[in-house]
Each structure stands twice: as structure tokens, then as C-alpha cells.
């Protein structure tokens, strides 16, 4: 009879070497939990000071968030990568929000959408989430105080601007206070093996973004449109036989659909940028953007006159988009992002000068760069 350890079971010599290391990890875990709760008790005091001051001090401050994460990165000397510690600290801050006052975050539903995934990646698991039916509902919820913050998709690296969201900024006074860059990865979700899948559901845009993979791996499967990728996951969860959905990892968790294949998108660099809207404007951090919208007279060189102002002040424009005004034919609104904060002297001077060339100019917000 052999004395060899069963497969997967370490031998006696290995167990003896592992035991003190695991004891050391357990002792460190105990210290970490104690330090985390000590930090949390300070957070409670911060909340008490904010409430006692009687001022409208925001629970979530994007400028403070950026400073904390930057400090963590500077303190990190490995071996853990920065992104690991950033994820830990984001959850710490999420728990801190809940200790001060539970935050409510509005996003474009249904649950499991990429907007939902972006919200969770930014605000963590300890806040409340409210799935809303459309972009105007998100702006309205934040403006009325029914939600503290809202997530609005602005542009996609593959498909360009999200025009419906841009239109809302024209009508709302709620400012942009932060941004998120979310890599968009599509996953095949199903409870049956690949060879049994006969129907694939997802949003038409998502199906198009995975066309090459589907053609190679499921050439005979029908592709059926759903209102969203999360709705597709819901359909498959309710009717799992011979069907699959393409959706997010969050949809996989919510609808209990295993990920058969991950990252099946044709373009692995596909990214969506989200704006976070709120009722307060963050302070300058030194690494900021300012978003604005303007309209000009309908004459030759009018747009160039405005753009030259920013050039002459040495300000870099990171985005320029246009939308019809919907009030008059051939009248357009121009949306610009520039590097810098509206409170910085050079940016303020440029905005003041640019207004002289515009029929209307509105600053949508200044916020830390993602």
C-alpha cells in the first residue's frame, strides 16, 4: 500500500512548511481587520463633523478620492499591483460612504447593464443602486435629490458619441463631477455547453461587436435581438434550453448564468466613457478636465474663432462633438472637453474670451481626469 498523499493533498513535509506561513497570514489578517475598523471609526467622526457643520458637504468628493488613490499608489512598493490596491480602497471608500450616509446611485437599467457595471466599479458594493428607464430620468433623479449621483454614458471608442445623453446636458443644470473609463468585454453566458446552443440573444450592437467570434464558433446559431444585453441574460435565465446570451460579468452573476467564453468581442480595446453627474462641483486637483457646450452664429469662421481662443491660451482639447440644436435647421451645439479646471486662471480667462464669440456657452463641469 502506498504512503503517497492523494492528488491535491500536500505531503507531510510540505504541510509543515506551510503551517507557519499560514499562521503568519492569519495574524496579519487579524491586524488588517483591526486597522480597517479603526479607519472606519475615524470615518464615522468625519461624518459627525460634516453634519455638525450644517454645510452641504458632499459624502463623495471626487477630488478627495483622486488624492487618496494617488497616495495609495505612491505608498505601494509591491508585490501587489496598483490596480489591486485601488480595488481594495474603492471598496473601503464604498463602506465609508455607507457609514457617513448611504449613497444612492442612478444608472440606466436594467440590472446587469454596462452602466450598472460601471457604477459598481466606481462606487463599490456598499451603496444603493437605482435602475432608471432613460437618461432624462437619471438627470431628474439627481436634480430632485432622489439620487446622489447618476451615471451617463458619453462616448464609446468604437461607436462614437451617445447622442441621447448629450441632448440631456442641454436641458439640465446638473454638473459633471467625475468620469469613468470602462473597458467593454462581452461574454457568452449559458447553462448548456457550446455544442447545444442554437440561439444567441443580445443587443444588436453587441451582436455586431462579436460577429467574427460568433461566425467562427457558432456559425449555425440564430442571433436574436434583445432590448439590452442584460435583458438578453434575463431571457436566457428564464429559458435556458439551447440558448445563450452575450453580456457582462455582472449579468452573469445576477442571473446565475455561467460564463462559457469571456472576452469574445472583435475589438479588445473597446471602451466606454461615462460621466458622473451630481449636485456639487469638485475642487481642482491639478489633473482635471472641463466639459462645456456652446453655439455660435451661422457665419464663416465662427467655430474657428472659438477654437482659436483655446489654442491661444495653450489649452488642449480632448474632445469635440456636435449636435443639431433641434430649434432651427442647420444650427448646432458643440461639445468640448479641455484639460484644466474652470477655476484655474488660464482656463477662466479662455472661457471669458470664448463667450465673446458664442451665442451661448455653458460649462457642464470640471472634474478629475480618469
TrEMBL record:
<dbReference type="Pfam" id="PF00800">
    <property type="entry name" value="PDT"/>
</dbReference>
<dbReference type="InterPro" id="IPR002912">
    <property type="entry name" value="ACT_dom"/>
</dbReference>
<keyword id="KW-0057">Aromatic amino acid biosynthesis</keyword>
<dbReference type="InterPro" id="IPR008242">
    <property type="entry name" value="Chor_mutase/pphenate_deHydtase"/>
</dbReference>
<comment type="pathway">
    <text>Metabolic intermediate biosynthesis; prephenate biosynthesis; prephenate from chorismate: step 1/1.</text>
</comment>
<dbReference type="GO" id="GO:0009094">
    <property type="term" value="P:L-phenylalanine biosynthetic process"/>
</dbReference>
<dbReference type="InterPro" id="IPR002701">
    <property type="entry name" value="CM_II_prokaryot"/>
</dbReference>
<comment type="pathway">
    <text>Amino-acid biosynthesis; L-phenylalanine biosynthesis; phenylpyruvate from prephenate: step 1/1.</text>
</comment>
<feature type="domain" description="Chorismate mutase">
    <location>
        <begin position="12"/>
        <end position="104"/>
    </location>
</feature>
<protein>
    <recommendedName>
        <fullName>Bifunctional chorismate mutase/prephenate dehydratase</fullName>
        <ecNumber>4.2.1.51</ecNumber>
        <ecNumber>5.4.99.5</ecNumber>
    </recommendedName>
</protein>
<keyword id="KW-0511">Multifunctional enzyme</keyword>
<dbReference type="InterPro" id="IPR036979">
    <property type="entry name" value="CM_dom_sf"/>
</dbReference>
<dbReference type="GO" id="GO:0004664">
    <property type="term" value="F:prephenate dehydratase activity"/>
</dbReference>
<dbReference type="Pfam" id="PF01817">
    <property type="entry name" value="CM_2"/>
</dbReference>
<dbReference type="GO" id="GO:0005737">
    <property type="term" value="C:cytoplasm"/>
</dbReference>
<dbReference type="InterPro" id="IPR001086">
    <property type="entry name" value="Preph_deHydtase"/>
</dbReference>
<keyword id="KW-0963">Cytoplasm</keyword>
<comment type="function">
    <text>Catalyzes the Claisen rearrangement of chorismate to prephenate and the decarboxylation/dehydration of prephenate to phenylpyruvate.</text>
</comment>
<keyword id="KW-0413">Isomerase</keyword>
<feature type="domain" description="Prephenate dehydratase">
    <location>
        <begin position="104"/>
        <end position="279"/>
    </location>
</feature>
<feature type="domain" description="ACT">
    <location>
        <begin position="291"/>
        <end position="368"/>
    </location>
</feature>
<keyword id="KW-0584">Phenylalanine biosynthesis</keyword>
<dbReference type="Pfam" id="PF01842">
    <property type="entry name" value="ACT"/>
</dbReference>
<dbReference type="GO" id="GO:0004106">
    <property type="term" value="F:chorismate mutase activity"/>
</dbReference>
<dbReference type="InterPro" id="IPR010957">
    <property type="entry name" value="G/b/e-P-prot_chorismate_mutase"/>
</dbReference>
<dbReference type="InterPro" id="IPR045865">
    <property type="entry name" value="ACT-like_dom_sf"/>
</dbReference>
<dbReference type="InterPro" id="IPR036263">
    <property type="entry name" value="Chorismate_II_sf"/>
</dbReference>
<keyword id="KW-0028">Amino-acid biosynthesis</keyword>
<feature type="site" description="Essential for prephenate dehydratase activity">
    <location>
        <position position="272"/>
    </location>
</feature>
<keyword id="KW-0456">Lyase</keyword>
<dbReference type="GO" id="GO:0046417">
    <property type="term" value="P:chorismate metabolic process"/>
</dbReference>
